[in-house]
Specification:
Elements: H1 2-71, H2 75-84, H3 88-99, H4 104-111, H5 115-125
Helix pairs in contact: 3-5, 4-5
Length: 131
């Protein structure tokens, strides 16, 4: 029987060593998986922050677009009015006004001329012209 006991003890030692090796391998594998999960969680958190930033930028851009649409909603109407009028009439009136001393701002606001058109009229026909 001692031989059987010796065989059983050797088998138990081998099984114990195998279990210990399996536990060490499982522990190392578990550490790698934990590190991988931590890295993935960190990436998910970073993506969440970037998504919040993009959403914030998108909201600001949406507000800007709305503001621009509101500011320029009348441009099409103004262009239609300008295109439908006699092209010479505002310039004739602007020349008369400039000769009477009207400045560029008034020509722009009252007659609908662009800033460069009003500047040209006042330079050519204004009271302080240097011709």
């Amino acid at each position: 029987m001692p031989r059987v006991a010796l065989l059983l003890a050797a088998s138990a030692a081998i099984i114990g060593c195998a279990a210990l090796i399996a536990a060490i391998v499982a522990n190392a594998s578990m550490r790698r998986w934990r590190a991988r999960c931590a890295a993935l969680e960190s990436n998910v958190a970073a993506l969440g922050r970037e998504l919040e930033m993009v959403a914030s930028i998108n909201v600001r851009n949406g507000r800007r677009v709305q503001r621009i649409e509101q500011e320029y909603s009348t441009v099409a109407d103004r262009i239609e009015v300008i295109e439908s009028r006699d092209p010479a009439a505002p310039f004739d009136r602007a020349i008369d006004w400039a000769r009477r001393g009207a400045d560029q701002t008034r020509l722009t606001q009252e007659l609908g001329l662009s800033r460069s058109e009003a500047e040209l009229v006042t330079r050519l026909h204004g009271r302080g012209k240097h011709a």
